[in-house]
Amino acid sequence: MTATTATSPPRTRTSLRGRVSDLLASRPKLLALVLVLPPLLWLGLVYIGSLLALLLQSFYSIDEFTGLVVPEFGLSSYRELLAPANMDIIVRTVTMAALVTLASGVLAFPIAYYAARYAKGRTKAAFYLLIMLPLWSSYLVRVYAWKLILAKEGVLTWAAEETGTLPLLDGILGLPVIGGPSLSVSYIGTFIVFVYLWIPYMILPIQAALERVPRSYLEASADLGARPAETFRTVVLPLAMPGVVAGSIFTFSLTLGDYIAPQIVGPSTYFLGQVVYVQQGTAGNIPLAAAFSVVPIAIMAVYLTVAKRMGAFDAL
Amino acid sequence: MRRTSRLTASVAVAALVTSQVAMAQEAQKEIGAGEGEVAIVAWAGYIERGETDKAYDWVTDFEKNTGCKVTVKTAGTSDEMVALMNEGGFDLVTASGDASLRLIAGKTVQPINTDLIPSWSKVDDRLKTAPWHTVNDVHYGVPYQWGANVLMYNTEAFKEAPTSWNVVFEETTLSDGKSNKGRVQAFDGPIYIADAALYLMTHQPDLGIKDPYELNADQYKAALDLLRQQRKIVHRYWHDAFVQIDDFTNEGVVASSSWPFQVNLLKSQTKPIASVVPKEGATGWADTTMMHADAPHPNCAYMWMEHSLNPKLQGDLAAWFGSVPANLEACKGNELLGDEGCKTNGLDNFDKIHFWRTPVAKCASQEAGCVPYYKWVTDYIAVIGGR
What is the least distance, in Å, from the CA of B300 to any CA of chain A? Predict the structure, then answer.
């Protein structure tokens, strides 16, 4: 029965539903387009559209006298971006993002390596749980908790007092630029909090990449006489690199855009996200805010291009 | 490009003229039956219905008595309030001094007929014709609450109450024998430049500052220089009231500009904290309940404005927010506020306070014009960044 229906020539249908169905079946590309259209519209209008609107705003300027936005094209907001105080903010944010990424990579790799190569069964489940657990609680709660831990009269200072390492802590806080009156109002504090916040996003991609390195490769490498360090350097690391780069995209971009953590822990100096927030929110200087938000977009565009070259997206 | 902009400009001017003619709005003459609803834009904590703390509820009874269901949209900044009101659909807004004049100038709010509000007579005389809601003798709202940015200090570090803001602006040795460096805070908002200007009014009279919100280029530069000096001794620029409370508890911070809210909260935890308005005076805020030009529920809005002045609400709110009531009857016999509450929250400081206003380029006291607010923002960010 079924065989005869399948082999019989297609009948011309008269109902609308039938015709639409035939049309879609005969043209798979059209079907794909229909399916993809709603998300494409969403992306195009809501996402790209708002980005373009933002870009457009950044070419406007603010009238020096009235403080109103002048909708005429010009580069004055970008010129303002080059002012020393604003360059400071960009350099500060990018440096922080780079350092946080570097530290996360160094800390995450051994953890991911253990989770991928040694943890089995229950231990592995526990590992996943431990890595994900912080993400279950509110971001704000965790940042405030760190503020208490890092406070002048907090746990860390207390521990330093008890162990007699207070001079060491004071020495670290006495360092120029990164030091301050206490850990919670220094760049060191902001750095620690950022690393804590984003490290899960680094561990998971590295672990995924490491799990795809076949054990036989390592054995072959050992059989051919490579010492463990050599195997790590020439086999494991290159194969895990896409994972590291993928993780770094998260840690880098998340640090670049965060505007809450540096407000709670840190020396009160502004990061990119905060400036955008303040400029558009309280100052009404939307052109400058837009110009500022173009900065991370540009940085991330470069970053992603480099990351793609390094095969980061193969590991996702 | 040029042609287009001129066209746009003329269209804008035309629109402005027509709207001015159209919007020469008159205040309502009488209150009809309630519409069953009133929508209010308010600061967080300003309109409580007992959901945060059962004892603080000034909405439920109003709804029962008038049948007007109250919906509240909270806003975090004055700009947000202005934006929400421009969007429309709301009846009332609890606008601070910086937003209120913008709303009046933008014709977003309508004049108020004070005859329809019996409690108007009970409003503190000092607030009745305050310039932030009265323009050309027309009232555009009902005063709600006000407060000062006080100098909060730790009584262990200060044996005697500080008399001047210099303890947060200049490096000195405090009475506990240690320097104030790294132990004081400043507010993390560009409006804090006004606090510096206020300090300079007393300490550098040659600058001729008449109003801390109306600064010419030289006065403004002097204020920024003072703030750059201050940057070296500041522990943190505070932004979040609870972070500041924590800093006074766990970080060894001993002095800062602050709100009565933090002072009351720390005192209630029996911390060695007190506050003062120093001899230079202080900056502060005063909020007004204003009515939208196209309020969808004008009758309920009038009923709320009347309700907003009743002593019970005013006292409860003052206790909750650490502010001072607009109706001084609230200061006596309110259980939550206590008989000393108004004094604690700064009732007697009114004349020392320079109420918060948005600095604009066209200002009354400077012929050459003033430094506008957007400039304050950029420069204050630079100061905090150490420039």
Answer: 31
- Judged by average pLDDT, the poorest of A88-92, B27-31, B160-164 is B27-31
Look up residue A299 and give its two tokens. 């940085």
Chain B residues with CB inside 8 Å of A66's CB? Answer: 361-362, 372
Domain chopping of chain B, boundaries: 27-147+286-349, 150-258+357-384
Asked if the Cβ–Cβ distance from B361 to A88 is below 8 Å, we say no
Q: Does A157 touch chain B (CB under 8 A)?
A: no
Inter-chain contact A283–B360, Cβ cutoff 8 Å?
no
Question: Is the Cβ pair A281, B182 closer than 8 Å?
Answer: no
Cα angle B321, B323, B324; round to 5: 145
Asked: is B27-147+286-349 a CATH 3.40.190.10 domain? The reply is yes
Residue with tokens 């002095």: B255
DSSP tag of B330 = G
Using 50, 70 and 90 to split pLDDT, how confident is the model at A20?
A: confident
Over residues A189-199, the pLDDT tens digits come to: 999 999 999 99
Say whether pTM exceeds 0.90: no
- What amino acid is encoded at A27 in this protein? R
> Model confidence over B278-322: pLDDT tens digits?
999 999 989 999 999 999 999 999 999 999 999 999 999 999 888
Q: Does B88 touch chain A (CB under 8 A)?
A: no
Contact between B124 and B239 (Cβ < 8 Å): no
